[in-house]
Design a protein that fits this description.
The complex is a heterodimer of chains A (about 625) and B (about 625).
Chain A lengths: L9 H5 L8 H12 L3 H37 L5 H54 L2 H6 L2 H43 L1 H8 L1 H39 L1 H6 L3 H53 L5 H42 L21 E9 L5 E10 L4 E6 L5 H7 L8 E6 L2 E2 L5 H7 E4 L10 H5 L8 H10 L3 H6 L17 H13 L5 E5 L7 H15 L3 E5 L11 E6 L2 E6 L1 H7 L2 H11 L17 H12 L1
Parallel strand pairs in A: 3-8, 3-9, 6-7, 7-8
Antiparallel strand pairs in A: 1-2, 1-4, 4-5, 9-10
Chain B lengths: L37 H5 L2 H4 L3 H32 L5 H50 L2 H6 L2 H42 L1 H8 L1 H39 L1 H6 L3 H27 L1 H25 L5 H13 L2 H27 L21 E8 L8 E8 L4 E5 L6 H8 L7 E6 L2 E2 L5 H7 E4 L10 H6 L7 H10 L3 H6 L17 H15 L3 E5 L7 H15 L3 E5 L3 H6 L2 E6 L2 E6 L1 H7 L2 H11 L19
Parallel strand pairs in B: 3-8, 3-9, 6-7, 7-8
Antiparallel strand pairs in B: 1-2, 1-4, 4-5, 9-10
Classes of the chains: A alpha/beta (about 625), B alpha/beta (about 625).
């Protein structure tokens, strides 16, 4: 049951197997990215080959040294001094070969890392850019946490393959083939014995590598359930305390934790069983080699130096062979991670500038909806045949129940979505034919809730115009009735807000949204339920402050609180995406339809007492009034 | 550029800034290394105690594993010795047999060591996480209020995970020390002179690593910080992508991000260079040691002072003996990282739990559902009380409305009734008993609470309504939902009561979430109900349902309500008017209206028009400090 809970890594969690069929395609593509730096790749490959060759001279040198020291006892052909000199030169060769191996390995590793970091950098920038280009339609469907995971962990998994998969494979293949060649050309039987463990070890390690990756995904999935349990508990700590639900919550924790723990135990067993099997096969091979080789030496068919040489080859191969597990794990990771990164990169943004799009040539700023239809993904229609015109200086009010399509109207105007029928024009120009940047610059959309960036108040207010002068920022904050609050903060406008800064209440965030919306001075203003969390008195003040600014602009106000829009020149009432009523406040009340009913509902909640000429604010909150009175008394 | 006219003084600078007012993401990074503190280490011991068998087993296994690992090159040397100088077939076979035995023992010991220590590490980190999580259930709400959930999660996840590496490698460290000593002993006992000469490179390596370590740590830290800075920028841009596109910040943010990505690349490259620099260093020293073995050992063999097998054994030892040094220095770094994490973990566990059951606390049972505040004085900071000498009584099944401006102490009263905080003076009595004399658990089971912001958990709707009321059947859940008019919208959802709530009910409207939280309180069926009415505007249709639901909730219960709706206030049996932590007046609506006090003024002004009250209004509901 808990498995079906949504997790932050939905996409990864849904598939805890590796799509082997996608492996060649994705891995080839990653290698292609690396090959954009052919010089560096060639350098890394060259270093890796050189390192392997120097590495493989060591066993022969060891064998030579042993024979030099040992054989002299048997033969009288060389003088002691010759042998001593030979030993010194072998020692120097060993020192040289080991040092060069080290240098080439280290330098090659560095270059390979550099290539992978360049690839990561390229991918990061394209990923970032792509997310900025993809439309709301894409972002609606994908959890932001999932995108963050792709941009961080998956991108890293893709990068790591260049070093941990590509280069390691090359090193391994080099070492194996060259050493196999050298061994087979020396002694076929001995070569067979020394390499006997390789097929078995490779198989078991490759399997383990893939299993490690698959089980890792599963552990992550189980851990994300635990994370969710903890996070919700902490966010809802007051509910937990109110219900004295500690035991209940600990129970949830224990179930989630135990699931994850038991699974990671399985993973541990899997992992060390494979490593142990590999180790046994390796030493099994070595025992055979030692046994056969030893008897050969006794029989005089082989020198002791040769035996040492073969043993040294085995020692040399052990570590790279162990890497097979990591190579396969890396390839498996890169397949799923790379797949997830490329999936995003390969999308074509569905909203972009039309070919040859010109900047919007706005003169007056007349906004028109002409028979607009809209539906998400060809599903149920959200808007059908919506038409209206808002002229400069006019205000359009949009009312409707939740889900009636109100916010969709707001999102269509800056082209966050494209209409599926009809058209939207500004001064007669279809918004799909003008450039996106000019359109969005012209439209000021104030959303229900401001997303706060983790920076200062100033930077947040000036988000749409980072070059705004200070007085414009302060002015916008004043308009949004936010200035007094900001000025009261210990560090004023330089106070950090957002995730790690000062937390703002829902109403303050809405006012931030308003302030942000007015800074760039747009030509058309849209308020999408942007005062719902602001009390009626403050809302009126905001409205008054905006009055002079909106005097010459087309304004659209979307709200469910009628007091927010009953002053509009024209009000449309939406029901299931259709305009069911249209007119100004007085005429709609007179018509006695949905609007009139809504109005009655909202004012009744107030307790009645309507006066004819002065409509009361439909919201009455004693707390707000009490605050006002306090103000008077103070 | 702008045709806005703002009411502002002319004294404000109106120049455009020299640099854009723009940042992306944040660069807060926590310290990841700390010096090794035995006290912090010691505090992990209680977590290891319950797993003594594993701790001891893993230690024995690692010693066997180290001993057999040392024996392997020795056995190879012995085999070579058996083969040379005429040779001895029988002895060779014997040695190979022993070799096989040693190898099997080594593999078995290795498996047990790794298996036990990894499981142990997992177990311990889950235990540590559990005790932290459990502690968060007990610490005062004042602490929780002050701390961001994100920060707490970083403790529960990041810091706890940093321990895993440490715990896994601790057993290994014992093995590495054993290996280091073992190899030294083996080399010296096989041949003192050659052994001493070969071992001279070890101090060289230790010195090199000691010099290298601080640099390596620095670049490592820089790489980590650069990466988290870049990632934080990415995450912020993703979360705020709608605002980014609305504000046409794409180009500028791309610039800002490119810079961070570039810095990150440079830092990663530096860190890689620092890591790779160690590879040739180790190899040069290994080559040197092997050269010594070849020249000195070779001459000794030549002179007949040394068996050729010993020389072979030396060659194999030399290839291995830097491993433990490298591992130990890595473990030192891991340990420093674990110290930083451990320090933060214990900081959390050391937050004192201030509200606990008295030893002789009894459960609250068989009581008349009354609530009484007797001369209560209370402040979050005791020096600045938010409630002064507050006294009132709520009779069984009465509804009491709390009314007053922001900061008047309403929220504090309901929090104290549930003993979320401790009073500074006076007493809070439930059913005539001091809340401090009864168990917290029974308090929670008898006092229901509906918060202003409905909070739902992921899981199904049914699970949310049943929350913590184990005995409730599906029928109980449905009938509660019906009573609060939630049944209709629930059944319209694709899977009805089994519908999963995504992202804590984001797929429901605020009003619908509110109704679910009512149903949750109804299922719990407390005798006393505390309710903080939502102020946010709810669409008119749901609003009606909520009004009806409130009546159902209040029926037959003792209720204390922070009320915002006039209807709720008017219908209350008693209204308590608060101002700056004092009770100004209390009584039913009619009496208070007749009193002509603050309440009647408030009520009249709200009733007629807001504009009268608006004259010189400066107060603002949200700006005032939290009650």
């Amino acid at each position: 049951m808990s498995d079906s809970r949504p997790s932050p890594r939905d996409a990864a969690a849904d598939s805890v197997s590796i799509d082997v069929s996608a492996m060649p395609r994705v891995l080839r593509r990653i290698m292609g990215l690396a090959l954009r730096y052919p010089g560096l790749v060639a350098l890394a490959v060259g270093c890796s080959i050189g390192a392997a060759l120097f590495s493989l001279t060591l066993p022969r040198l060891f064998g030579q040294a042993v024979d030099q020291a040992h054989l002299l006892l048997a033969s009288e052909t060389a003088s002691v001094e010759d042998v001593q000199r030979a030993l010194v030169s072998t020692a120097l060769l060993v020192l040289g070969a080991a040092s060069l191996r080290g240098l080439l390995t280290g330098y090659g590793g560095y270059v390979a890392e550099k290539v992978s970091q360049k690839v990561a950098y390229d991918l990061r920038l394209s990923f970032f850019q792509q997310l900025q280009r993809l439309s709301f339609g894409f972002h609606d469907k994908i959890h932001s946490g999932d995108l963050v995971t792709r941009g961080m962990l998956d991108l890293e998994g893709t990068r790591a393959f260049i070093q941990g998969g590509m280069m390691q494979t090359l090193t391994l293949v080099m070492l194996l083939s060259v050493s196999a060649f050298m061994m087979f050309s020396t002694d076929v039987t001995m070569a067979f014995l020394a390499l006997a463990f390789v097929p078995f070890a490779s198989w078991i390690l490759a399997r383990m590598g893939i299993m490690l990756r698959v089980t890792w995904l599963r552990v992550q999935q189980l851990m994300s359930v635990l994370t969710l349990t903890m996070e919700e508990n902490l966010q809802g700590i007051r509910v937990v305390r109110a219900f004295s639900a500690k035991a209940f919550e600990m129970g949830k924790f224990d179930v989630a934790a135990d699931n994850a723990l038991q699974y990671s135990f399985k993973r541990i067993t899997l992992r060390f069983r494979a490593i142990t099997a590999m180790t046994l096969s390796y030493y099994g091979s070595m025992a055979l080699l030692l046994w056969y080789g030893g008897h050969q030496v006794i029989a005089g068919a082989m020198s002791v130096g040769r035996l040492t040489e073969f043993l040294a080859y085995m020692t040399l191969l052990q570590a790279p062979i162990r890497q097979i597990a990591m190579i396969f794990a890396s390839a498996a990771r890169a397949t799923s991670s790379g797949g997830r990164v490329f999936e995003v990169l390969d999308l074509e943004p569905d909203i972009a500038d039309a070919p040859g799009a010109q900047p919007l040539a706005a003169s007056q700023g007349v906004l028109r909806f002409e028979h607009v239809d809209f539906s998400y993904d060809a599903g149920r229609p959200v808007l059908s045949d919506v038409s209206f015109e808002v002229r400069p200086g006019q205000t359009l009010g949009v009312v409707g129940a939740p889900g009636s399509g109100k916010s969709t109207i707001a999102n269509l105007i800056p082209r966050f979505y494209d209409v599926t029928g009809g058209r939207i024009t500004i001064d007669g120009q279809d918004i799909r034919e003008v450039s996106l940047a000019s359109l969005r610059e012209y439209i000021g959309l104030v959303q229900q809730e401001a997303f706060l960036f983790d920076t200062t108040v100033t930077n947040n207010v000036a988000y749409a115009d980072p070059w705004a002068a200070e007085d414009r920022i302060v002015g916008a904050a004043r308009t949004a009735q936010l200035h007094d609050y900001i000025a009261g903060l210990p560090t004023g406008y330089t106070t950090r807000v957002g995730e790690r800064g000062v937390a703002l209440s829902g109403g303050q965030r809405q006012r931030m949204s308003i302030a942000r919306g007015v800074v760039p001075g747009p030509g058309v203003m849209i308020f999408d339920d942007s005062t719902a969390a602001i009390d009626a008195v403050t809302e009126r003040k905001v409205r008054d402050a905006l009055a002079s600014a909106t005097k010459t602009k087309a304004t659209v106000i979307i709200a469910h609180r009628l007091s927010s829009l009953m002053h509009a020149d024209q009000i449309i009432v939406l029901d299931e995406g259709q305009v069911v009523e249209r007119g100004d406040h007085q005429s709609l009340i007179a018509a006695g339809g949905v609007y009139a009913e809504l109005y009655a509902l909202q004012t009744r909640a107030d307790g009645g007492g309507l006066s004819e000429d002065l409509p009361p604010e439909p919201t009455s909150d004693l707390e707000v009034v009490a605050n006002q009175i306090q103000g008077v008394r103070a | 550029m702008s045709d806005f006219v703002f009411d502002r003084g002319n004294d404000v600078a109106s120049q455009t800034p020299r640099r854009p007012r723009a940042t992306l993401g944040s660069d807060d990074a926590e310290e990841i290394f700390a010096s090794i503190n035995p006290k912090v280490l010691g505090r992990f011991i209680p977590y290891l105690k319950p797993h003594k068998t594993f701790v001891i087993g893993a230690q024995i296994a690692v010693l066997i594993s180290a001993a057999t690992a040392i024996a392997i090159p020795y056995m190879i040397g012995q085999a070579v010795n058996a083969a040379v100088g005429g040779g001895d077939n029988a002895r060779l076979d014997q040695i190979i047999a022993i070799f096989v035995g040693v190898v099997i023992l080594n593999a078995a010991a290795f498996f047990l060591e790794q298996w036990m220590s990894s499981r142990l590490a997992q177990r311990v980190i889950f235990d540590v996480r559990r005790s932290m999580f459990s502690h968060f259930q007990d610490v005062s709400l004042s602490f929780m209020d002050k701390t961001h959930v994100g920060r707490i999660m970083a403790r529960l996840q990041g810091d706890v995970n940093a321990l895993q590496e440490f715990l896994e490698s601790t057993t290994g460290a014992v093995g590495d020390i054993a290996l280091l000593i073992g190899i030294t002993v083996a080399l010296l006992s096989m041949d003192l002179q050659l052994g001493l000469l070969t071992l001279t490179v070890i101090p060289a390596l230790i010195v090199v690593r000691a010099i290298w370590l601080p640099f390596s740590k620095k670049t490592f830290r820089e790489a980590r910080d650069a990466s988290s800075t870049a990632n934080s920028a990415l995450a912020e841009n993703i979360q705020g992508v709608r605002t980014v596109q609305e504000s046409r910040r794409e180009a500028m943010n791309f610039e800002l991000y490119s810079e961070k990505a570039r810095e990150n690349m440079a830092a990663q490259n530096n860190s890689a260079a620092m890591t790779q620099v160690m590879v040739p260093t180790v190899d040069v020293l290994t080559g040197l040691a092997m050269g010594i073995v070849i020249v000195v050992g070779g001459n000794a063999v030549l002179g007949g002072r040394l068996d050729v097998g010993v020389m072979v054994a030396f060659i194999f030892y030399v290839q291995r003996f830097f491993d433990p040094v490298r591992m130990l220095s890595m473990q030192y770094t891991i340990m420093q990282r674990a110290m930083a994490a451990g320090h933060r973990i214990f900081e959390v566990l050391d937050v004192p739990v201030t509200i606990v059951d008295k030893p002789d606390a009894e459960p609250l049972a068989d009581f008349e559902p009354t609530v009484e505040f007797r001369n209560v004085t209370f402040g979050y900071d005791p020096a600045r009380p938010v409630l002064h000498d507050v006294s009132f009584e709520v009779q069984p099944r009465q509804v009491v409305a709390l009314v007053g401006p922001t900061g008047s102490g309403k929220t504090s009263i309901i929090a104290l009734a549930h003993r979320f905080y401790e009073v500074d003076q006076g007493q809070v009595l439930i059913g005539g008993r001091d809340v401090r004399d009864v168990t917290l658990d029974s308090l929670g089971r008898n006092i229901g609470m509906v918060l202003q912001e409905p909070f739902l958990f992921s899981g199904t709707i049914e699970e949310n309504i049943r929350y913590n009321t184990e005995g409730a059947t599906r029928d109980d859940v449905i009938s509660a939902a019906k009573s609060v008019s939630a049944h209709d919208f629930i059944t319209r959802l694709p899977e009805g009561y089994d519908t999963q709530l995504g992202q804590r009910g984001r797929n429901l409207s605020l009003g619908q979430r509110q109704l679910l939280s009512f149903a949750r309180a109804l299922v719990a069926d407390p005798q006393i109900l505390i309710l903080d009415e939502a102020t946010a505007n709810i669409d008119s249709f749901t609003e009606q349902a909520i009004q009806k639901a409130l009546k159902v909730l209040f029926a037959g219960r003792t209720c204390i309500v922070i009320a915002h709706r006039l209807a709720t206030i008017r219908d209350a049996d008693k209204i308590i008017v608060l101002q700056q932590g004092h009770i100004l007046e209390q009584g039913p609506h009619d009496v208070l209206m007749a009193n002509q006090g603050l309440y009647s003024r408030l009520y009249t002004s709200a009733h007629a028009s807001f504009d009268d009250a608006q004259v010189a209004a400066t107060g603002d509901a949200e700006f005032a400090t939290r009650t």
